[in-house]
Amino acid sequence: MLIETIESFPDTTIMLTNGRKYVVKESEEQVYAMITSLYKTIGLAGMQHAGGNEDEE
To answer: Which has the higher per-residue pLDDT, 37 or 44?
Structure first.
């Protein structure tokens, strides 16, 4: 399962790619910070697509 969207209206709602929604008490900014921290911990932060963007010259 991957996160598709994170929205605040006013509750922070996380929508997953499988269609499930979770309402959390943390702010949208806190959720993004936790995701970024997780990605850094597991080595995904800062990774770029190996093939690059097809539109780049």
So the answer is: 37
